[in-house]
Prior knowledge:
- This protein is of the alpha+beta class.
- It has a single domain, classed as Sufe protein. Chain: A, CATH 3.90.1010.
- Helices cover about 45% and strands about 20% of the residues.
- The mean pLDDT is about 90.
Amino acid sequence: MADLNKLYDDVIMDHIKHARNYGEMEQASLQADGVNPLCGDNLTVYVQVDSDVLRDTKFKCECCGISMASASIMTEMVKGKSVDDAKRIAAEFLGSFSDEGENKHADHGRSAVLGIVREFPSRRNCASLAWAALNAALDGKDQAVLGS
Ligand code: ZN
């Protein structure tokens, strides 16, 4: 992995080394697994929902760095948001992967993930995984499997 430092910029490396909200949640209201067979990524997203607000969000995974970083960024972006807002943020994030237009609500974490997806399209499922699992959890499903 000699290219690791070129592949992952500082923001991504920081989320890999110091993943936010990493670990199991004992009393999650909702949780879903995300599976990306192409890369072998396997993660679980936990959500604590109270009065329609995501009070807490955690994840754990056996996954590559980009999945880890995207999941870490995801938990930070949706924590404290309403369920509807979290779904909207997820849809925007996932939609921005295919949108060549400018990033309307660019923040540093999302821009970093987007940069990798644009440069390495094969990593798109890795970057999408946590968000797909979040969507599944919020829809009451227990798993999201990404195809090719
Ligand atoms: Zn991956």
